[in-house]
Amino acid sequence: MIELLHGRRSGEHPDFLTEYVELVRIVVLSGLLVGLFVAGPAMRLSMLLLRLTSPDTVIGIQSDDDFTIGEFTLSGTYNLFMLGAALGVLGAAVYVLVAPWLIGPRWFHAFTFAFTAGVYVGSLVIKDEGIDFHALKPLWLAIALFIAVPALVGVVLPLMVNAVAVRGPSRRSWVTLGALQLALLPSVVMSLVVAIVMVPGLALRRALLEPIQRSRTAMWLFRAAFMFFPVAGTVMLGQDIASLV
Questions:
Q1: In sequence order, what are the residues at sequence separation of 6 or more whose Cβ sits closer than 8 angstroms to the Cβ of residue 181?
Q2: pLDDT tens-digit readout, 146-165
Q3: How far apart are CA 66 and CA 130, in angstroms?
Q4: What three-state secondary structure class fits 72?
Q5: Among residues 1, 29, 64, 206, which is most buried (max CB within 10 A)?
Q6: Residue 119 to residue 105: CA distance in whole angstroms
Q7: pLDDT tens digit string along 26-42?
Q8: What are 179-223's pLDDT values in tens digits?
Q9: At 184, phi and psi to the nearest 5?
Q10: Between the CA of residue 124 and those of 130, 143, 144, 240, what are the distances in Å?
């Protein structure tokens, strides 16, 4: 067993409900923190930088994500931070899912997760269709930022998830979680979706993880299966960039 299995500590065998509640706390709290303090600001600064480097003709154009380019408003900034929070919660859930299969020390986990997030998310948003990568200039900077932001989030998320898990549950952490969720209220939908999906996910983890970890062959088969995502992301990202340049 790995030293820290999110939702329980080494040697502990909590009941399903106890482990589930702790897992939800870890995922939602760490995801909201990263969304508020990393993803949201990174997206806001990236949009500002691209506005400054792009021609004035882009001002007022609706981006592919339905944001008005060149328009700085409190509502637009809030929507970006809300989006960052929702993606942070989703990313934290994904990290908890793949963490038992990652190899190497925890710093290498963060690198692996960051690389996968950068190329895979980048391949999803960098497209020849739409206007973002035709209107925003220079093209290389737009591409770099749309890869760098999810990669940055991918670096910080494992560190935050592990830190929240190690500190354990407390009244203060639940109060912080509630305050963040209220402040970023629209992201509660993602939190609820993730919490629902965790029910069967945790049930499968409790039933299958230890038997799989006892088999070296099974462990490497699962690790090989997860390698599909960074490899597929890299290939798709390369194709998308080639279609733009």
A1: 28, 32, 187, 188, 191
A2: 999 999 999 999 999 999 99
A3: 11
A4: coil
A5: 29
A6: 22
A7: 999 999 999 999 999 99
A8: 999 999 999 999 999 999 999 999 999 998 889 888 889 888 888
A9: -115, 55
A10: 13, 12, 14, 9
